[in-house]
Amino acid sequence: MKWSAPVLAALFVAALVPVTAWSDDDAKHPVAEYRHVLMESLGYHMRASSMIMKGQVDRRTDLLMHAQALHDASKVVTDLFPAETSPDKTKTDSKPEIWTDWKRFVELNKAFEKESARLVEVAKKGDLEAYKAQFAKVGGTCGDCHDAFRVDD
After folding, report:
1. What is the torsional sign of CA 141, 145, 151, 152?
2. Which of 7, 16, 42, 90 is least enclosed, having the fewest CB within 10 Å?
3. What pLDDT digit, counting tens, does each position of 83-127 carry?
């Protein structure tokens, strides 16, 4: 097989270009994409709970399900931030400070885990006013983490 000069030149240039897993500027690492979807689902559970608490829908028994979903997810959040999903390696809404201040990130997630566990317990009792108060604490933990570690929209 005879190679033409343009083909050989193209192959030579291609060999010099470093190959990366994320050559497209809009590409996300699969774990970063999964993380994004999970975080959005947390937002939807928060929103659905708010609708119930405001009396927009009469589904008070669903508050336990929403609380449990929040708590279950809280247990895996830190696992969804491996080094290969940092902003210098893939497209993400996460600030680099997650990886440079990992200890604080873990502490904030522990607060989310603790407050969401309490939300589950409050939901089991069926006291709407107590649920609202605890829900505000859970929301505060979300806000604390977002303020510190999420890029503003």
Report:
1. positive
2. 16
3. 999 999 988 989 999 999 999 999 999 999 999 999 999 999 999
Taking only the tens place, the pLDDT of each residue in 13-44 is 444 434 334 344 556 899 999 999 999 999 99
Torsion angle of C-alpha atoms 31, 37, 43, 48, degrees rounded to 10: -140
Write the CA distances from 74 to 66, 71, 89, integer angstroms. Answer: 12, 5, 24
Domains and CATH numbers, the chain: 29-149 (1.20.120.10)
Tokens of 131: 């649920």
Reading the block at residue 104, the tokens are 């604080």
Report the candidate in 117, 115, 122 with the shortest Cα–Cα distance to residue 142: 115
Other CB atoms within a 10 A radius of the CB of residue 145 amount to: 19
pTM, two decimal places: 0.81
At 96, phi and psi to the nearest 5?
A: -60, -20
* Structure-block tokens of residue 132: 């609202």
pLDDT in tens, 66-79: 999 999 999 999 99
Residue with tokens 């979903």: 69
How far is residue 63's CA from residue 123's CA, in Å, rounded to a whole number?
6
